[in-house]
User: Which sequence fits this backbone?
């Protein structure tokens, strides 16, 4: 969805690198990105906090300073304290995981009771929480 939306908005999308959803996966993905890219991207989007935290370490190991040389944005689906205390602190698109789980449970109960039929969906609000890894543009 992220890549599709970027392309619809005319935002250039570089290589998509998929790795295990872990800090080690994020560190490895950044290494692969930097060795396989002709042009270094100006921003990296990570699909999870774990990937972003690993990417921070990988970039540090390569001597790349954030946010001066490169920015990182993560889907904020983990520990908010880890996001805030990472160095630099992570900029995240905050996904309301607990609210989503509660709504799924409510929909399941309504489905079992015969009150609704699939397909159905709900929109949930997400928020951008800027951190030091991608500060807001002034």
Assistant:
């Amino acid at each position: 969805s992220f890549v599709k939306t970027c392309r619809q908005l005319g935002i250039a999308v570089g290589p998509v690198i998929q790795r295990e959803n872990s800090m080690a996966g994020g560190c490895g993905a950044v290494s692969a990105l930097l060795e396989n890219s002709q042009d270094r991207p100006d921003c990296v989007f990570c699909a999870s906090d774990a990937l972003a935290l690993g990417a921070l370490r990988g970039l540090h190991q390569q001597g790349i300073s954030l946010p001066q040389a490169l920015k990182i944005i993560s889907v904020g689906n983990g520990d908010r304290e880890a996001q805030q205390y990472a160095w630099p602190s992570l900029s995240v698109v905050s996904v309301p995981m607990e609210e989503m789980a509660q709504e799924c449970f409510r929909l399941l109960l309504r489905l079992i009771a015969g009150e609704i039929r699939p397909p159905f969906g709900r929109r949930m609000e997400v928020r951008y929480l800027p951190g030091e890894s991608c500060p807001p543009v002034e």
About this structure: The chain is about 40% helix and 10% strand. The chain has a mean pLDDT of 88. The first strand starts at residue 43 and ends at 46.
